[in-house]
Amino acid sequence: MEIQKWRRGGILGRGSCATVSIATNSTSGEEFAVKSVPVCRAEVLRREQSILSSLDSPFVISCLGSDISKNHHTDQSCCNLFLEYAPGGSLTDEVKRQHGRLPESLVRSRTFEILSGLVYLHDMGIVHCDIKGQNVLIGSDSRAKIADFGCAKSEFCEYASSQISGTPMYMAPEVARGEEQGTPADVWALGCTVIEMVTGAVPWVGFSDPVSVLHHIGYFSNVPMLPNWMSDEGKDFLSKCLIREPSKRWSAEQLINHPFVESSDNSASEKSVIESWVSPKSILDQGMWDSMTLNLESEPLERIGMLAGVSTVRPSWSDDEDWITVRCNTEDAFVTDVPSTSGGGEDEEVNLVGSHMETEEFQFKPHGYDYVGGNNNCLEGGKCKTNCRFSDCNSVFLKTRKELSMRYLIGYPCLV
Ligand SMILES: Nc1ncnc2c1ncn2[C@@H]1O[C@H](COP(=O)(O)OP(=O)(O)OP(=O)(O)O)[C@@H](O)[C@H]1O
Hints:
It comes from Rhynchospora tenuis. By secondary structure, the chain is α+β, with helices and mostly antiparallel strands. The protein is built from 11 helices and 17 strands.
């Protein structure tokens, strides 16, 4: 049924580009999820809708329509995408609820469900490009469903992204090198997601920024460590997902017959949902960049392909301080303007733009932090000044100092 009048409820989660809230259809009383972005970001949702509306699978979240509405508090319009409500939240939420590790019986059935979704998508000519725990939702039928098609590529959709995109931690070697992003890349990301379910952690540990992890994935010969407490079947399944050479990696269709998932039974999924039924929470307070989706705006192949060669380029800040890298996750983070080299005046707000990630928006409040801009860093007219080899680099680095020094970063190529 078409949704004409509806009421927005509380926030279910936030991603890097959208806010997702629960909503109620005023006519039928049914609940659904509404994913909203400001109208200036409409393209992101249009892309997602154009792909989702052609799909029909119990293993893929359903699209129920869209509209444009006005926020009466801010007087701003936003685009809304109506989605099937997944009351179990994301797979990442489920792993957290189960104290950081899913039992293997549940890992098997969740893997089977995600694989079923992937077999369907790949058969439809779609590559998801951003498979990870946060983008797999647990539906009211207790099944795992693939969601968030903002990065997806489709043979048939004119709006679909043709760029390399996704989440660095889950990227396959060929994607990290900027070479290609086809169906094998989803299988690699599935392997990483299995590791997430089994360990509660990202597949690569010990990296402090996305560029080093991309470099490592792309140019070193190793694969993520297989958790040694997994069954032999589980390890064998992972070893087939995590083959570095994409043409040798098993396809989703081959993997669905692997003994690890073949023997899975849906009762583990049902039991998990019944035992721990709670409202989903925001995912944004979790480990910052390791789950962050990147959409590389221009010349992505060139950018990523060059990563191996830029290891000496670094903003010349002293690194002897207690730096932490933060991702803005507050409700009031919005950006409209370009910063000046001298930072904000006492009373004005400094607004930042110039991101490699089209989805990232940050607000910096000069009252909150002591701004240390200028000299040798990136902040000149919003343009990169770090001898970065990307001539059109737009990265904005903002160094701030409070009790703990903080570095806000937008974009990433300059970080190496
Ligand atoms: N249909 C839904 N039902 C319940 N919760 C949802 C639904 N869709 C999204 N969410 C919640 O909102 C979060 C953000 O949604 P989503 O990943 O679609 O946003 P995004 O901005 O596209 O994210 P990304 O940072 O991966 O690009 C999810 O991780 C999940 O917790």
